[in-house]
Amino acid sequence: MGVRELGEFKIYEENIMTYAIPLIKNAFYNEHQTRYDLSRFIRSSCNLSMGEQCQMFEETFASKQGRKHAVLVNSGGSANLALLQALVNLRRLHAGDRCGFSALTWSTNVMPIIQMGLTPAPVDVQPNTLNTTTAMIVQQVQPIKAMFITNALGFCGDLDSISKWCRENEVILLEDNCESLGTVTPYGKTGNFGLASTFSFYVAHHISSIEGGMICTNDYELYNMLKIVRSNGWDRNLSRKEQTEMRGETSEFQARYTFYDLAYNFKPTEIAGWLGNNQMQYYDEIMNAREKNYQKIATVIKNNHEILPLADASYQKLPAFAIPIICDSPESRKKYLERFDKADIETRPVIAGDITQQPFWKERYLSRKMIGVRYINDCGFYCGNCPDYSQDDIDTICRCVE
Fold first, then answer.
1. What mean pLDDT is predicted for residues 147-169?
2. Which residue among 39, 43, 79, 330 has the highest number of C-beta atoms inside a 10 angstrom radius?
3. What is the mean pLDDT of residues 31-45?
4. Are residues 385 and 274 in the same domain?
């Protein structure tokens, strides 16, 4: 364990950053002031379990995203699991139903599908968008009951077309938008194309509450069920009208420990709620900084024939989660990874690569050859895109992709 000085604070950390340009420079935007204000909040607060700060964050976030309802939970992974559990509770999904998902994704997008007893159906992605398309869904996995899209690293596929196809074929469209907060297409914001969408506030994401997640929807019935799923199956967070309808003849006393449906304890803390509210004041600043960083580096990449330029011309806003480097061969990737290592820049695989090659998948299902995600798996990597990178940091990344 090491100690990092931060103004008047001593921060004890197990993993002091060792890269000149790490994936994450700070836990929060406006780090020093946020930590100082957080300590004051904790000292003065009478309640640190889920309460007013969490509700305020839900309302602020829903308004900013352009959705009617938002439910705060303790992580982005919990958001995915709670969403699918709520749909199963409402009998909109049933055990055995086929659920498509983007093959370039994170484990917590796929595992809840398996845990709910649904049949997972991976869909390939395009290397130049990092995302799946309507054509791929139609060709590879239909018929399906639901489609769980992952809007990868701030990018998306043809969501308007996917949304239309899902409506016409009575397929439930869900968006894992954990990496694409703030992205705007000509047809609207990512996260607003399906029945519901999930978000993450882990420290590496656009908005940080240390850990935290959100589910957004316009569906009131789903919204109420999500509040039940989040809190052990209780009705405590429902309106008085919903409580009365649900309880029937159950007494007020007995209702305190009555559990109405399958659920978890995914409740967030007031600390997460406070941090979310604090960071939302910097929302536009954060998005603008990320977009500026990405555009400068993407301009350099477009002049390098060894790196695939991503199809980003149609975005109205692109505050990329990270800087994807998709090379023309595994050999090129090795060369550029060496450049980044030499420049002391932290790198990662592109999410989990081909998720169907992961151990948990191969133990349960047969792998299927998917050309696009395999190409990204073998030829791609990414570096960070922190809103607080210095100009020198951005210039160093640009030199590495020249």
1. 97
2. 79
3. 96
4. no
